[in-house]
User: What shape does this take?
Amino acid sequence: MELTDLKGIGEKTAKILTDAGMARPEDLLSCLPLSYIDTRHPKPLRDVDEGEFACVAALVERAPTVYYFKGSARVTVACVSGADRLSLCFMNQSYRAGQFTIGQKLLVYGCFGGHPKRSVWNPVLCKPEDGILPRYKPLKGVAQTTLRRAIAQALELCPVAELPDESLFADLGLMRRGEAYRVAHFPTDTGELARAQTRLAFDKAFAYLLSVARRRAERRAQGGRAFAMEDLPENFIATLPFSPTRAQERVLLEISADMSLSAPMNRLVQGDVGCGKTLLAEYALFAAAENGRQGALLAPTEILARQHYAHLQQRFGEHCVLLLGGQTAATTRAAKAALQSGTAQIVVGTHALLTENVAFTNLALLVVDEQHRFGVAQRAGLAAKGSAPDMLVMSATPIPRTLAMTLFGDLDISAVDELPAGRLPVKTRYIAPAKRAEMYRYIAEQAANGVQSYVVCPCIEAAEGLEGLSAKEIYKELQSLCAGARIALLHGKLSSKEKTRVMQAFADGAADILVTTTVIEVGVHMPNANCMVIEGAERFGLSTLHQLRGRIGRGTVEAHCFLLSRSRSLSTRERLEVLLSGADGFAVAEEDLRLRGAGDYFGQRQSGEDATARSLYNINAAVIAMAQDAVFRVERLAAGEREKWFDTLCGDARADAIVMN
Assistant: This one.
């Protein structure tokens, strides 16, 4: 069946849907709603937060006005909602001017602006009889009503395939898959919708965990080489100018035990920012070199790779080489020749290590820093340059242990849950809008005294609903607020070369203030950066805020982090209090998991209305437990039956795993 076989879908619409990844009618079923408009229970405007998507009842107070500017038309409708005034704004929809009369009752859905002027741009006009209305990701050229009608037809014409044997977990009380899709698209009751969302979240978690189980079985069947590790821990510690923490010593011994076995090591080391994970990577590389083998450290950015290289070169000297994409051709040739001949025992590099013409004599250890920045395929590509090398992956994003054991079921897990002695906690403060100018005066004073600062923004360009919060806007604003300070701008749209240049200039002290986005979340070491301002803090997750905060306070002076928020929401303030309390990364991660669920760990980060969708189909702790139980049941089946499950589910899950891991 073709898309054009559906009523209301012509060639033009079919092409738009195909380009969006929905080439067949059955593909429409996976286009799950981003949100729902519950017209049965409009929310009082006074309870709607800035930036929130909601359905609100309103009364037209004045006749619409139309404003024309440079070929564009804006229709504004003045309304009241309870005791509050509300403006409905429609861009390039001049026909709207004839749709409203004074005293007309409305139900409007959209993203609401803040106080004191409440407004909503291009709202959806609803009817009470709509009930619970699904809201899909906007597709230019395809109306929401067209998409709803097409999905309704697809549900009738395309039966949803059930799993190989649903009776395997019938006792879990899950809704059947076909019914779950029907309810998810066209719910009539919120309780029924919650059950459907649980089933769809279960399917996603189950497919992923089954894929993890297969990878775990494949790894355990692999052969490898055992390293001679006797006395190496003591010898390594004796070379250090300081005493490692008890947590570092514990993990160091766990790495030693892994490397002494013939099966390849596959260990995740996670810990809070500044806990000393780099020392453990250095030890693993030291052990490989002492055994006459080669080791590679893969870093996500050039500046981080250079930092690792500068540190490791102190131990390995000329036997350590650096391989980056931006090096001169002569330097690159020399590094590759040293690796191929075996002269170089250790290589530090970025994605340049993954190229086909990089060859090793005897690669036996792969260390991956900031593991979430590299996909499964990338790690496997580098591992293929050796013969079943040991693998140590590191993450500076603390994950609650129960969740980590689930997400990384094919890895052994070590947690470095102790900070080095003498490290001062970052002093974190909440800053209200009224105190913003005063805070920036303090930042300017710090710059005059030689202290560097980060200013982190939620977006790059000015955007509707994020006015005044973009990196480019704030960079321009600080030219006057922090006059005299040297200000630099960094964001993800810059080329890799330009990003490296800006970061290096900041590291060299050529800039006092770095206005940036979350591109600095990766663990770059800047000891002189002791202040951080996070604009629009309510728009970041707790774990992200904690990671950002970890970029400062790396010297011996107390550091300061300022959280700016325009939100008047009590829940926002309560959420930020977790950071103000001085909680460590693991405590922050636990609270983040409680508040937002596991959605961010099982997929890419999203924002705006997409964030609503993530929470709707959330993979929470209860869903993970059910999915894990179902996987155990599959693993206990006979080999032939087990393979049916793997073949049915693991193909798609592996694609997801490249994003998730």
In short: Confidence is low (pLDDT under 50) at residues 603-615, 652-661.
